[in-house]
Amino acid sequence: MSSVDSTFSSPTLSNATALHVSSQGALESLHTSIPVELWLEIMSHMSTSSIQAMTCTCSSLRWLAQPLLFKLFIIRLGHPSSPSASGRRDIHPASGLVRLAALQLPHIAKAMTEVRLLLPSTFLDRHDHGGPQTPHPTKTLLIDTLFAALPSLVNLRKFVCHDVEFTKYHLSALSRVPQLKELELQSCRTSCSPEDFPSFSSVVLETLVVDYPFNSQDTFRNSRFLALLLQGRKLRRIFAGPANEILFAMTETPPPPTLSILEIPVSCVTSSIFIPALATCSSVQELSLYMATGDTYLPPLDHIPLDILPNLRSYHGPRTYAPCFTRDRFITDVDFPLPAQPTDLCATIGNLTKEIESLSCRVDNLDATLLQTIHTTFPSLKHLSISGGAVDIDRLSSVLSIAKVHRGLTSIQITVQTGVPRLTDSWGATVAKMFLSRLIRSYPILEHAKLLLPDPE
């Protein structure tokens, strides 16, 4: 058992402070001319295993090194006889309570910057006949203990929760975490009514990540819960999905004017409140419509009113939606993550704004017509990234020789196929060097070029 494990297999929450005092006293007896700050700088460059080894040397260095092992603090609950996906056994609630003794050691609690509370989906056992869910009492105590300690974690920046049912006490503790910047909730819910919600207006939260399954049991309650988290006055980014609870939350509580990044699933397009929800976040500059895992259906989208997302500058999503968001808006960054045929992509490009400076797309194959269309349509283009099916480097050279020279592009990234005979250690010094001259002729002010090899089969 490592030094860290042995520490928290013995002390309880009641005597954890005493352990801290004795360790701090040991630090003062460290006979060395090396300042504490230099020790910490040295250990910041060490691997986890090396830091663990250092905690076994003496109590003084243990006091210095051990907090570095707790910057990321994980409580993962599961049956002790069930190996986790990573191959190790998840901790039992009883051992989890012992592990929480670390929260009572000030020098360790101060070092924590990220805490993850990961419960299995079977954490709440449903009674027969679809009755209410009741948590294991020991697990409930563990969760309550962790939340009670959250406000004292002065350097906590990120908090991750999976399958947690928030009570009003949990919400109150969360609202008092002094420096929380990022909150990630997966299948979390609340058992209290909105009348018991605390205020989150003073929370400095900048990133909110919420993940709800399509079969959410109580959309209304979930959306009211998420609406509470939108009160933070410094919120900059929202990532939500795959269900549409975030849309209801946004209409309930409009996000603050600091919100600049919104990432939601494509399925939101089918919701009747899709447009009203977007109308609440006029400050958004980056919009991402992503395909959720297992989602293959692309619903139609014909029109977005001009007063929706007036400050939009970046679009990431299906190419068929792009004209709706780029029309009469000053869009400079476009990314099409779904693969497309060159002819279909050419048709979409013809309907986009001419001011685009960065274009990323995936194509099944690259031809001269597509490259010519890009060069002609976007005279202000500075960055071009083409991925998908790898193009033979000789064919790419031929395509570049046919396409019109673009005098504004400064960065390009393309997936190429060099062929097995050329795939040697000397490839970078021969083929790439020869191809670079071809690129320079097509893009005279090119500053950065990156040729990617296709992923192995």
Please, could you describe this protein's structure?
By secondary structure, the chain is α/β, with parallel strands linked by helices. It contains 17 helices and 18 strands. It has helices at about 5, 15-30, 35-45, 50-55, 60-65, 95-100, 105-110, 135-150, 170-175, 220-230, 245-250, 275-280, 320-325, 340-350, 370-375, 395-400, 430-440, and strands at about 70-75, 115-120, 125, 135, 160, 165, 180-185, 190, 205-210, 235-240, 260-265, 285-290, 315, 335-340, 360-365, 385-390, 410-415, 450. The strands form 3 sheets. It has a 14-stranded parallel sheet. A two-stranded antiparallel sheet has the order 3-4. The protein has a two-stranded parallel ribbon with strand order 6-8. Strand 15, helix 15 and strand 16 (about 385-390) form a beta-alpha-beta unit. Helix 2 (about 15-30) packs across helix 5 and helix 6 packs parallel to helix 8 (about 135-150).
